Each structure stands twice: as structure tokens, then as C-alpha cells.
């Protein structure tokens, strides 16, 4: 019997193990990490509240972003030149301007339009409202995140729709299946195989991306730990608290993504 | 096989042939299931159909032969409005396909009306085009449920009967990818039949199959022909044409070169081009 020997592999394994042990030791033995402080703040009510707000911003950003993104993707694929141009223009604009700038723009919209009115276009207004009253920091944050996200979502959904074999559309059309049903029952579920992994990236990106809204003094996770360490000076410990929460959130999302991908992969070897 | 015993209906002598550009006049005469008159179709600079006339009687099996690029598939696709014709008319069951005639002008039908017309016409693709994320049963019930709004129990009972008929009763819950090519095409035929169409179109149904799987698909098609289904089949299977077809149509360069009973077109073709083609494939 011949046994394969991999002496170099064993050396590499030993080396990696030593490095891991050193890293663990550096984390545990250095008192400057202040693990007891980390433990003390990890589940502090103000921190947990900020985690909830982070989650809310993520969910609203993704749901609204992908809803608008799907609409944009369908417009972009429309044979109508005006619709596809508008969708193209939207993606171009909102992908080109940094998110932080967009957020500040929505936050300060009142400087441009002090009052917003709703009614007949170019006609009489039914009611109007002060911009500041309508768009508070939270609305500005959701608006900014969702509109920015929609530009990326549009491209992801468009890519997914294009990845579905043309024969599928033809078969569905030849069977006389109504247009909306064709999209929802035949095309989109197959497009999801391509959409989900990319959307997973986007959602995980957005969980962390919500930290940008700290500039609007919204008490999401990153802002909240800054508030705390500015008060007590435990900078590293509180940054670690934030890092641990981001890890937990993204890990949970990765697990969900695994099952969603498996669902949409059904019927494929 | 009793498929060859079917009678060939008498038709007027003098087959519709080259350059006959007569356009359809009002209603279809007799009981023609399909009637094409002067059908033209171009893709950009490519003139694929150059004035095709074709009549298929109810219950007949018509096999279209011809070299690749002769317009066979495009012709088939105009018969369920997957391709719009540039000129000429397509009638199915005496009714203009895809358009409504008002006076001497044609108006395109609404999407819904076109879809309703399509539910009367089954289409079997070369590459099956089964829906991979749906089970075999769901593939069969989708169109009856959503296009014909039939009750679920009825659609499922019909699906079960059709799967029995194509010999795949035990595969109802399988996903298409787990089946062989021959089985997938049999499912695709059952799916087309689930609409209980008056006409079934086959676009090279065995061309994507391994040679040993061709037979099982042809068997299902022969069974269908025996049951009196009107069929138009684009294929290279000369044996199938000889055994099952009532009419063989030979196409070349976007035109019907000749058509007639298989014995005549296959064994004693009148046109040089037909003779050259048959000589090569036999």
C-alpha cells in the first residue's frame, strides 16, 4: 500500500497553528482590549437599541432598494427607448455620487426646497408640507440608502433576468401564459439563482454601509459606540463591541443566504 | 406500426409552388386547419421566407423537410405568432392569426387575444425548454391553470393522463434535469398537449437527442398522429416522414419547392433541388 506523504503541508499546518495561537494570545493576554468592558457593553440597552436601528435601516434600504431596482431593471430592458434611457440615467447618476454625499443631500433638501407640495403636476397643490417636517434624519437616511441601493439592485436584477435562457420566455409565450405570470412564475424564479448571491453581497454590504449615516447623528450601531467611547474613553473596547455585532449580523445573513440559494437552486444538479 | 395506414386526403392537383403570391381571400375554404398565403419574413437583410403558401387539413400530419437555413423553423414559428410575418397571412382554424381584418386593413390583436389563440396551438421545441425550477407535473399544469384558468384538480388529472400516455407516469414529481433527453422531450410533448390544442407544431423535436433516444420520442409522436391530432413537424427523420406523414413539404431558400404524399415527394420528386436533397439524406 502506498501512502502519499505531504511533508510541506505538515510544515504549513504547524506554521499556521503557531500564528493562530499567537493571535489568540495577543487578543486574550493584552489587557488593553478590556474584554470585561466589551462584555459589559455588548448587551447594554443603548447598544441593543442601536443594533435594532441598524437592522431597520438595512431592511428598509434593501426592500425599498430592490423594489425600485426591479422596476428600473424592467424599464431598462423595455423596448421603449424613453423608459430604458431613464433607467440607465438613474443608475448612472446614483452609482456615480458617493453615498455619504447623497445622504447629506437628502438631509439638507430643505435648503433647496423649503416646502414640498403634492397635487396635480404643474397644477394646483392639494396640500403642502415643510420639507424639514417630512424628511427628518431617519427618512433622509432611508431615502438615501434605498435610492443608492436601487441603482445597484437594478443592475443585479437586470443581470439575473438576462441570465435566463431565451427559450424559457419563448416556451412560456407559446403556452399562452399571461405576461405578468410569465415574469413572476417562470423568469424571476430562475433569475433568482443569479440574483441571490449578488443580492447577498449587497445586503451584507448595506449592514455595514448603514454606519455611514452616523454623520446624520442617527443612533445606529456605529454612532452609538462613538457616543459611548467619547464619554468613557474606552475606544478599543467599544469599537470591538460594534465589530462583534456586525459579525453576528452578517453571519446570520450568510446563513439565511445559504438556505435561500438552496431553495432557488432546486431542480438543478 | 399502423401509422402508415392512414389515408391521404385528395387535394387539388398542381401543388402550391414557387412564387405563388396569392393572398388569402376572406375565409378559409373547406376545413383547412392551417392556411398560409404569401408569407414573407425578413430578419434585417436576411429574407428568410419569400412568399410561402401552405395548407394543412384537419387531422393531417405534415412533415416539412429542407436544408438548414431554408426557413422551416421560421415558418413553423409564424404559425403560432412567435414570429410576426412581414407580408401575407396565416390562418389557423379559419381565423387570421395575430391580426383582425377590418375592411382591407389588418390590426394586430391585443396580447391577450394572441395568447388565447396560442393556447389552441401546441409547440414542441428542439431544446425542450421545460421549466427547470418546476416539477414535471407543474410544467404540465402551469398553462392550463394560468392561461386557461382551469380548476387545479382538472389540470392535475389531465397532467396525470398525459404523463401516462407518454409513458412517464412515475416522473410526475421529478425535476426535468433529472430526466434523460428523450424523457424531457416526451414531457415537453405532454406539456404542449395539456392545452388540448387543435394543432401541434414540432420544431426538430429529435435533433437535440442522442441517437438511441430518438425512437422513444418518435413513438410518442406516431401515437399522437394515429389519434388524429393535426401536426406540422419540421424534422430530418425521413423514416418518420415516410411512415406517418400525409403530406411532405420540401422547402428551400424560403420557398415551398414541392409538396405531396410521402411516396411521391420522397421517391419520385419532381424538382431537381428536392431530388438532390433527398439523395443526400437517404
From TrEMBL, chain A:
GO terms for molecular function: transmembrane transporter activity. Its main location: membrane. It is a multi-pass membrane protein. The keyword Ligase does not apply. It is found in: Cell membrane. Residues 51-257 form the ABC transmembrane type-1 domain. SUPFAM superfamilies: MetI-like. GO terms for cellular component: ATP-binding cassette (ABC) transporter complex. GO terms for biological process: amino acid transport. Keywords: Amino-acid transport, Cell membrane, Membrane, Transmembrane, Transmembrane helix, Transport. It comes from the Bacteria. Belongs to the binding-protein-dependent transport system permease family. NCBIfam families: HEQRo_perm_3TM. This is Putative amino acid ABC transporter, permease protein. It comes from Planobispora takensis. The lineage of its organism: Bacteria, Bacillati, Actinomycetota, Actinomycetes, Streptosporangiales.
From TrEMBL, chain B:
It is a peripheral membrane protein. GO terms for molecular function: ATP binding; ATP hydrolysis activity; ATPase-coupled polar amino acid-transporter activity. Keywords: ATP-binding, Cell membrane, Membrane, Nucleotide-binding, Transport. Its EC number is 7.4.2.1. The keyword ATP-binding applies. Residues 1-23 are annotated as: Disordered. It is an enzyme of class 7 (translocase). It is found in: Cell membrane. Residues 7-18 have a biased composition (Basic and acidic residues). Its main location: membrane. PROSITE patterns: ABC_TRANSPORTER_1 (PS00211), ABC_TRANSPORTER_2 (PS50893). It comes from the Bacteria. One of its GO terms (cellular component) is plasma membrane. It catalyses: a polar amino acid(out) + ATP + H2O = a polar amino acid(in) + ADP + phosphate + H(+). Residues 34-278 form the ABC transporter domain. This is ABC-type polar-amino-acid transporter.
Amino acid at each position: 500500500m502506498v501512502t502519499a506523504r505531504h511533508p510541506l503541508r505538515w510544515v504549513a499546518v504547524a506554521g499556521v497553528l503557531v500564528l493562530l495561537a499567537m493571535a489568540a494570545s495577543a487578543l486574550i493576554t493584552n489587557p488593553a482590549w478590556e474584554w470585561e468592558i466589551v462584555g459589559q457593553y455588548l448587551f447594554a440597552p443603548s447598544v441593543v437599541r442601536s443594533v435594532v436601528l441598524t437592522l431597520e435601516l438595512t431592511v428598509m434600504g434593501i426592500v425599498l432598494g430592490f423594489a425600485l431596482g426591479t422596476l428600473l431593471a424592467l424599464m431598462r430592458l423595455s423596448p421603449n427607448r424613453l423608459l430604458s434611457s431613464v433607467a440607465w440615467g438613474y443608475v448612472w447618476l446614483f452609482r456615480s455620487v458617493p453615498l455619504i454625499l447623497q445622504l447629506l443631500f437628502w438631509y439638507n433638501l430643505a435648503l433647496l426646497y423649503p416646502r414640498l407640495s403634492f397635487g396635480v403636476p404643474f397644477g394646483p397643490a392639494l396640500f403642502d408640507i415643510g420639507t424639514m417636517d417630512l424628511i427628518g434624519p431617519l427618512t433622509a437616511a432611508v431615502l438615501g440608502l434605498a435610492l443608492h441601493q436601487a441603482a445597484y439592485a437594478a443592475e443585479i436584477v437586470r443581470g439575473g433576468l438576462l441570465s435566463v435562457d431565451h427559450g424559457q420566455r419563448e416556451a412560456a409565450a407559446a403556452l399562452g401564459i399571461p405576461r405578468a405570470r410569465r415574469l413572476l412564475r417562470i423568469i424571476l424564479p430562475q433569475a433568482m439563482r443569479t440574483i441571490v448571491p449578488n443580492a447577498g453581497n449587497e445586503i451584507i454590504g448595506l449592514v455595514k454601509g448603514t454606519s455611514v449615516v452616523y454623520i446624520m447623528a442617527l443612533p445606529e450601531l456605529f454612532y452609538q459606540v462613538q457616543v459611548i467611547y467619547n464619554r468613557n474613553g474606552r475606544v478599543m473596547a467599544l469599537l470591538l463591541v460594534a465589530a462583534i455585532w456586525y459579525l453576528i449580523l452578517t453571519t446570520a445573513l450568510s446563513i439565511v443566504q445559504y438556505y435561500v440559494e438552496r431553495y432557488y437552486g432546486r431542480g438543478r444538479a | 406500426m399502423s401509422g402508415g395506414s392512414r389515408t391521404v386526403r385528395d387535394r387539388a392537383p398542381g401543388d402550391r409552388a414557387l412564387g405563388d403570391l396569392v393572398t388569402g381571400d376572406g375565409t378559409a375554404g373547406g376545413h383547412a386547419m392551417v392556411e398560409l398565403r404569401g408569407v414573407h419574413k425578413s430578419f434585417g437583410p436576411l429574407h428568410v421566407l419569400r412568399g410561402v403558401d401552405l395548407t394543412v387539413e384537419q387531422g393531417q400530419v405534415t412533415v416539412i423537410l429542407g436544408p438548414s437555413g431554408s426557413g422551416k423553423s421560421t415558418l413553423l414559428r409564424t404559425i403560432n405568432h412567435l414570429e410576426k410575418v412581414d407580408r401575407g397571412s396565416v390562418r389557423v382554424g379559419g381565423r387570421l392569426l395575430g391580426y383582425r381584418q377590418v375592411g382591407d386593413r389588418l390590426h394586430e390583436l391585443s396580447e391577450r387575444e394572441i395568447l388565447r389563440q396560442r393556447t389552441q396551438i401546441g409547440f414542441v421545441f428542439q431544446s425542450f425548454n421545460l421549466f427547470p425550477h418546476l416539477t414535471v407535473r407543474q410544467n404540465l399544469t402551469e398553462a392550463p391553470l394560468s392561461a386557461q384558468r382551469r380548476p387545479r384538480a382538472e389540470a392535475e388529472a389531465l397532467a396525470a393522463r398525459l404523463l401516462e400516455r407518454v409513458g412517464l407516469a412515475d416522473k410526475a414529481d421529478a425535476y426535468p434535469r433529472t430526466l434523460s433527453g428523450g424523457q424531457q422531450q416526451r414531457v415537453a410533448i405532454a406539456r404542449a398537449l395539456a392545452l388540448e390544442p387543435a394543432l401541434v407544431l414540432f420544431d426538430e423535436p429529435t435533433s437535440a437527442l442522442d441517437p438511441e433516444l430518438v425512437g422513444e420520442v418518435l413513438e410518442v409522436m406516431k401515437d399522437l398522429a394515429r389519434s388524429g391530432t393535426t401536426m406540422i413537424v419540421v424534422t430530418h427523420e425521413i423514416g418518420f416522414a415516410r411512415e406517418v406523414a400525409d403530406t411532405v413539404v420540401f422547402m428551400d431558400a424560403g420557398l415551398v419547392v414541392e409538396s405531396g404524399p410521402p411516396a411521391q415527394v420522397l421517391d419520385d420528386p419532381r424538382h431537381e433541388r428536392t431530388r438532390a436533397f433527398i439523395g443526400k439524406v437517404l
